[in-house]
Amino acid sequence: PRVKEAPPVLAPRRPTRQIKVGSVGVGSESPVSVQSMTTTPTTDINATLQQIAELTASGCDIVRVACPSQDDADVLHIIAKKSQIPVIADIHFQPKYVFTAIEAGCAAVRVNPGNIRKFDDQVKEIARAANDHGTSIRIGVNAGSLDKRIMDKYGKATPEALVESAVWEASLFEEHDFHDFKISVKHNDPVVMVRAYELLAEKGDWPLHLGVTEAGPAFQGTIKSATAFGALLSQGIGDTIRVSLSAPPVEEVKVGLQILQSLNLRERKLEIVSCPSCGRAQVDVYTLAEQVTAGLEGMSVPLRVAVMGCVVNGPGEAREADLGVASGNGKGQIFVRGEVIKTVPEHDIVATLIEEANRLAAEMGEV
Ligand code: SF4
């Protein structure tokens, strides 16, 4: 059989050590994974599992759940057992929940050492418990909760401050011969964040979890994350990503996957190539593109569909795509794999594209 050539990427991955988050490998030997975090109270087991199921269906690889109280810690074993994807317990302030989460079968625990008092004394025990259970750790340094010592030294959360904190915290685990951890150094400013990860990447071979923290509502957060992750991933930096949006977590996964697909770090799925429209357009391109996108939502095969407003670039793009339309004069020329298969009246363009897309998808194995 013909081997499909891998699509080009902007840079090879930065070599890192490899860790496991449950069944998902994190490091340069594994594809960049996509994470999100549940927004339900963790104690509401059914709602949390329901949200995890939705995240799984949307393509999320790893899910994080907050563990702010003993009650949350107490239900982790159920959630870890029933979730279809690896669960990371997110723990601030309370080292004792780290042990509960490890024993509960969580795939990993995120600790924020700046927020865990007397952390130094406990690292040894955490390392031992994590080692015994095959649990990995994320050292999650965050601009908003830097250690006081570091804040006193730098005055604010500069890239150097974030990195010094991360390297110090990594050394606490490494002193106890524990290496199954990844690191994040999040900041809400993409410029600071990118610089912090670049510096951190020079200092060790730890796998890195990328995130712009508190990135904002969907529009702003998407742009901030895409810009920052793009800058890093295009240098090969980043092994797992979480887009943080003030929006439902499924949206974070969609954005994360789209970023990876755009950089050829994931196979592209449905791709709508639509023109921006201009004074030459002879059809309402926005509505057409929106209706086609809505009609094909959830399609999981790599299909490129061109929706073009006129005959200038229309036939060329439509011919390059798997499927396309070039509109003009109240009609649409429908292209399938480069050939015009028919011309339909404008009001039939959407239905025809959807029908042809489904036919092609079925040929490609879409169920
Ligand atoms: Fe304008 Fe036609 Fe290009 Fe669309 S395809 S942007 S309508 S020239």
TrEMBL record:
Q: Which reaction does it catalyse?
A: (2E)-4-hydroxy-3-methylbut-2-enyl diphosphate + oxidized [flavodoxin] + H2O + 2 H(+) = 2-C-methyl-D-erythritol 2,4-cyclic diphosphate + reduced [flavodoxin]
Which InterPro entries does this one have?
Dihydropteroate_synth-like_sf, IspG_bac, IspG_bac-typ, IspG_C, IspG_TIM, NO2/SO3_Rdtase_4Fe4S_sf
Q: What is its EC number?
A: 1.17.7.3
Q: Which residues form the IspG TIM-barrel domain?
A: 16-256
Name the pathway it acts in. Answer: Isoprenoid biosynthesis; isopentenyl diphosphate biosynthesis via DXP pathway; isopentenyl diphosphate from 1-deoxy-D-xylulose 5-phosphate: step 5/6
Binding residues for [4Fe-4S] cluster: C275, C278, C310, E317
The UniProt note on the cofactor reads as follows: Binds 1 [4Fe-4S] cluster.
Please state what class of enzyme this protein is: oxidoreductase
Q: Name one Pfam family in it.
A: GcpE_C
Domain (IspG C-terminal) ranges = 271-357
Q: Which residues form a coiled coil?
A: none
**What keywords is this UniProt entry annotated with?**
4Fe-4S, Iron, Iron-sulfur, Isoprene biosynthesis, Metal-binding, Oxidoreductase
State the Gene3D superfamilies in the record.
Dihydropteroate synthase-like, Sulfite Reductase Hemoprotein, domain 1
Cofactor (UniProt): [4Fe-4S] cluster
What is known about what this protein does?
Converts 2C-methyl-D-erythritol 2,4-cyclodiphosphate (ME-2,4cPP) into 1-hydroxy-2-methyl-2-(E)-butenyl 4-diphosphate.
Q: Which HAMAP family match?
A: IspG
Q: Which family, according to the similarity comment?
A: Belongs to the IspG family.
This one is known as: 4-hydroxy-3-methylbut-2-en-1-yl diphosphate synthase (flavodoxin)
Organism of origin is Quadrisphaera granulorum
